[in-house]
From TrEMBL:
Gene Ontology molecular function, alphabetical: hydrolase activity
Keyword terms: Hydrolase
Disordered, as annotated region: 1-21
InterPro entries, A to Z: Amidohydro-rel, Aro_Compnd_Degr_Hydrolases, Metal_Hydrolase
Pfam families per record: Amidohydro_2
Stated name of the protein: Hydrolase
Organism: Pantoea latae
Record field: compositional bias (Basic and acidic residues): 1-12
Span of domain Amidohydrolase-related: 28-290
Annotated SUPFAM superfamilies: Metallo-dependent hydrolases
Length: 291
């Protein structure tokens, strides 16, 4: 049963109303972060982001109507996954995790992460990244053997520069934030062609998350054509994520997005129940191995 009637305050979200449509049962928010001062940030992280705990996130989860969710290790913690693991233990079987490790990680460490609910590893090629492009291929082979995926957060320019490496990777690949394709002409960027090369290999998933990163409008309506192209031409390979608590906006002291409004846009762009079920339920269940 969905809970859109709940009108509770949500931190780090400028929600003005609840979503105007009910999500399918077992819908999944495939991208959010947790910050907890009990766990120290990496020494080179200077943003000093405030706490955004699992309890804080639960208000958003209920307000939007999700039953499942995926916790993504933020760059602030580097390869120290203790905050992620604590949140996964608290969340239980309705949650999965995407950790950050290097190619030096041991098999026993990967085993422990898997037992805790981790099903993928994230490479973030922003400032202060703990991972490098050279680590992708050796680590991808190990992840593929476990049925895990490799997730990448990078700009469209960076993704295009990594084209040959990405096309060679084994196993499932997830790209964050709609490939960070820039407005106003996202489909003119060469990374748009790369997206379809990877999708046509049958192993790439696209997160329709963080639309506000590239949008020039509060209601992200300028992302419509781009998002619809993935929803309706790659229905089997799309995921949705809130990107809560929107750390890049917090650190830049910018206005928080209206997560309910953005979700409503996505819901209507999906346009029919079959696409919505794939986006919110079936695709996440397959990739993250929800029972």
């Amino acid at each position: 049963m969905n809970s859109h009637s709940i009108k509770e305050e949500v931190k780090y979200s400028d929600i003005s109303s609840s979503p105007d449509s009910l999500l399918p049962e077992n819908s999944c928010d495939c991208h959010h972060h947790i910050y907890d001062h009990r766990f120290p940030c990496a020494p080179d992280d200077t943003r000093n982001l405030p706490d955004a705990t699992l309890d804080d996130y639960s208000h958003l989860k209920r307000r939007l109507g999700f039953q499942r969710h995926v916790l993504v290790q933020p760059s602030s913690y580097g390869t120290d996954n203790r905050c992620l693991l604590a949140a996964l233990a608290q969340a239980g079987d309705c949650a999965r995790g995407e950790a950050v490790v290097t190619d030096r990680v041991s098999d026993s460490e990967l085993d422990a992460l898997g037992q805790a609910g981790v099903t993928g590893v994230r490479f973030n090629f922003g400032a202060g990244s703990a991972t490098t492009p050279e680590m992708m291929l050796p680590l991808a082979h190990r992840l593929a053997a476990r049925g895990w995926h490799l997730q990448i957060h990078a700009s469209a320019d960076q993704l295009w520069s990594l084209r040959e490496r990405l096309l060679q990777l084994p196993g499932n690949l997830v790209i964050d934030h709609v490939f960070r394709l820039p407005q106003p002409e996202p489909m003119a960027h060469p990374a748009w062609r790369l997206a379809w090369e990877l999708i046509n290999q049958g192993r790439c998933w696209v997160k329709l998350s963080g639309l506000y990163h590239q949008s020039r409008r509060d209601d992200v309506s300028d992302m419509s054509a781009l998002v619809k192209s993935f929803l309706h031409e790659a229905t089997e390979r799309v995921l949705w994520g809130s990107d809560w608590p929107h750390p890049s906006l917090i650190s830049a002291n910018k206005k928080m997005p209206d997560d309910a409004l953005i979700l409503s846009k996505i819901f209507h762009w999906a346009s029919n129940e079959q696409v919505r079920h794939k986006l919110f339920v079936a695709n996440p269940a397959e990739l993250y191995r929800f029972n």
